[in-house]
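#onboarding

Welcome to the new folks! Below is a worked example of what a typical request in this channel looks like: someone posts a single protein sequence, and someone else replies with the predicted structure as tokens. Don't worry about understanding the tokens yet, we'll cover that in week two.

Example request:
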Amino acid sequence: MDESFAPRLRHRVLEFPLHHMRGGTSTGLVLWERWSPQDLALREELLRHLMGVPLAGQNDRNKQITGLGRGSPTSNKVFFAAIEPDPEGNVLVSTLAQLAHNHGAIDWSVNCGNMSAALQLWATDSGLVTSKADLRIRNTNTGVTTVSRMQAAPDGSFVTAEIPGVDGAYPAVDLFMQSPVGAKTGRLLPTGNVVDLIDGYSVSCVDVAVPMVICDAAELGKTAHESIAELDADPVFKQTLQRLWVAAGLRMGLRRRDGALMTEDELARSETIPKICIVGAPQAGGNIATRYFTPQLGHASMAVSGGCCLAAAVLVPGSVAQRAAHGVPSLGGAFADVEVGIENPAGILDATVVARMAAGLPEIRSAAYRRSAQVLLRGHVPLYRASAALVAAVMERVA
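Example response:
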């Protein structure tokens, strides 16, 4: 990276270098780890300045007009990133900070598949990697390593792709999650069953990249082609969905970060696990239709981890997803790429599962989701209210 692209003082104001980027359907910042303060409190202060969130307390009226955040959680993400040597070649080490517009608390417990799609482009744009080959990305929040793949066109430019929710074609990124089975439970089928009956409804509980409860839309009086607004506005449907994810979460044995089993109350309030979706027959050229919930709210498209999980679930014989899917080839005894088109409110999202059939169930080596990425801007952001301690800590990194 050009050493001139470093923190600096101008007019007695600390200016911090960054890339403002889009990865998939998320936007956020990518910061070079080298220039970032190591003290957690100062690192969090830096993030609050950059994103325009309250430095302390809560302010529900905050509109982030003083920073680069954009209100929605999908546009309040910051990655710290660095390239480190490794016996198998360079690896990009990433740490995600998830912010919210109305308070200063920062969540360091999660990763973001969408924004992860921006990391290889950031490394290339920064001159930290030179080839458009596969790049391993190790995320410190989760301990998970993915492989990012960008391809070169004959003229040396990036191969591009169009994805739902993004207007136009931009550099294409395939993110391969390695050994994604049992991300939270250690098992492909956490309950031990291909299909569970809960309150009279058929569900498949599958854990690939993320634990998810897959429901038959027709059994819930839906088609999986409704708008998210319509589904979120149906209180009976939403209450039923909550009962299903809570009961399924208990059966799956989902745990808190401290290792304790999640209670019924905790599952009912959970904003992260388990994910839940309804599925139905495709109508627009994909292999399956879905409406996906996080679980509290419907998703405008489809999350990366949820898409990989659903694509893998389609390959499980007899699962709710497999029954709804059309046109998916059967697995053989050798590993092969299986592409699954997932119809969602934003269009068709393409997932690739590398798998083979073994003892009646798919053995999944990796799963990938196609995204696109772009650099929105690169430059320095003045931090007019930076504390003296933050200024000193950052400038020490430059010295």
